[in-house]
Design goal:
heterodimer; A: mainly alpha; Nitrile Hydratase, Chain A; two-stranded parallel sheet; 4 strands; 44% helix; B: alpha+beta; Cyclin A, domain 1; SH3 type barrels; 2 domains; 5-stranded antiparallel sheet; 8 helices; 16% strand; globular
Chain lengths: 216, 219
């Protein structure tokens, strides 16, 4: 793939790390006050929405789905053929996960998920996306240079591994089912779930083997 | 539209920058914008496609400069004004001239879990014959609509194979402009990486793109 990715235009990212301009804080406060005053929104509902995505919906959900698929072959089959129903069995679903597809990694196939047009991401199983997933570098390069992007995440794939990139252009939302790592044979479902990372379920990482000595 | 948002395959954006232990929101205002957007969306005053397009029409230099939720904020302000929920004068003054005469349903905290759990499915249970079948070779149309579209530039005029038929969905191009849902089949279409990017791509890699009937023609 492309070997000479230009790093010249890095200034586009620096702003992510600047202090938040007070202007934005003020503008948002003003808009919220206006909408509340107009009777269009309810403040406790806003608080509940934020609390939900900060504390209740996140990648631990997806990790439970993955762990269940690792220990239960029939569940895995359901997950790959009708992801919505299988994910709902664990109690997850809804907003930005209305139409799920699960794609399975194997020693020969590695899946990577992106949304080149915006920021589409499977909220019910992974929560809200990290900044890098929504960033121009990831969105622009994942489809043309997936192996280069993976290298930046520390993942070097063999040449004969087939890379499949899933661009979330439609209403489908994708979850990668990573490979179960070596050395995890004796672990409980819960201990397996603890190994599964967000990055592995987006496809920018593999699930690492448990440290020696970890058991069920 | 051929906007800067349609980034697949562009160069020059730099390396991917990861953040350790990243918070869900980086500042209070980000969470407030997120929540305001979801709360107002529940009124169904505009479609999700219209909202996407409102972000796409942010001028390119601004689009690249803005933080993610700043783009949401920009679109939210434009849509609340366009839909008549608030006036431009109220946005500028920050003061309500009067309470909204047609507030519609106001989402309450008690309704939040059920609203999130039900989501807003874009599939439609209406009969629509698929134009293509799994395994068929297709070509993505060479078209350049000026409005909202989910046909990314990097696949236009390229050959692919239907991998999976996902059933019938609302068509974003018309739905974004309130021209109707025009329900039709959506497919995962597999494009060989070399078809998209030439010999520089790895020989067995591929990109799967979700495409509607209207974006495709028989190969």
């Amino acid at each position: 793939m492309t070997g000479d990715v230009s790093h010249a235009n890095a200034q586009g990212h620096d702003h992510e790390h600047q202090a938040v301009p007070s202007d934005l804080t003020l503008r948002v406060k003003a808009l919220e006050s206006l909408l509340v005053e107009k009777g269009l929104v309810d403040r406790p509902a806003l608080d509940a929405l934020i609390d939900t995505y900060e504390h209740k919906i996140g990648p631990r959900n997806g990790a439970r789905v993955v762990a269940r698929a690792w220990v239960d072959p029939a569940y895995k089959q359901r997950l790959l053929t009708d992801a919505n129903a299988a994910i709902a069995e664990l109690g997850y679903g809804g907003q930005q996960g209305e139409h799920m597809q699960v794609v399975e990694n194997s020693p020969k196939v590695h899946n990577l998920v992106v949304c080149t047009l915006c920021s589409c991401y499977p909220w019910p199983v992974l929560g809200l996306p990290p900044v890098w997933y929504k960033s121009a570098p990831y969105r622009s390069r994942s489809v043309i240079d997936p192996r280069g992007v993976l290298r930046e995440f520390g993942l070097e794939l063999p040449e004969d591994t087939e890379v499949r990139v899933w661009d979330s252009t439609a209403e489908l939302r994708y979850l990668v089912l990573p490979e179960r790592p070596a050395g995890s044979e004796g672990l409980s479902e819960e201990a397996l779930a603890a190994l599964v990372t967000r990055d592995a379920m987006v496809g920018v990482a593999k699930v690492m083997s448990p440290p020696k000595g970890v058991s069920a | 539209m051929n906007g800067v948002h349609d980034m697949g395959g562009m160069h020059g954006m730099g390396p991917v920058q990861q953040e350790k232990n990243e918070p869900v929101f980086h500042a209070n205002w980000e969470g407030r914008v997120f929540a305001l957007d979801l709360a107002i969306d529940s009124k169904d005053k505009w479609t999700g496609d219209a909202e996407r397009h409102q972000i796409e029409v942010i001028p390119p230099a601004e689009y690249l400069r803005m933080r993610y939720y700043e783009k949401w904020l920009t679109a939210l302000v434009e849509l609340t004004v366009k839909s008549g929920l608030v006036t431009r004068a109220e946005i500028e003054s920050g003061k309500a001239m009067e309470r909204s005469s047609k507030p519609g349903h106001v989402l309450t905290a008690a309704e939040v879990p059920a609203t999130i759990a039900s989501g807003a499915p874009a599939s439609r249970n209406v009969p629509a014959a698929p134009h293509f079948r799994v395994g068929q070779r297709v070509r993505a149309r060479n078209m350049h609509p000026v409005g909202h579209t989910r046909l990314p530039r990097y696949v236009r005029a390229k050959l692919g194979t239907i991998d999976r038929d996902h059933g019938v969905f609302v068509f974003p191009d018309t739905n974004a402009r309130d021209l109707g849902e025009k329900p039709q089949h959506v497919y995962s279409v597999r494009f060989a990486a070399r078809e998209l990017w030439g010999e520089q791509a790895a020989p067995h890699d591929s990109v799967y793109v979700g495409l509607w009937d209207d974006y495709l023609e028989p190969a």
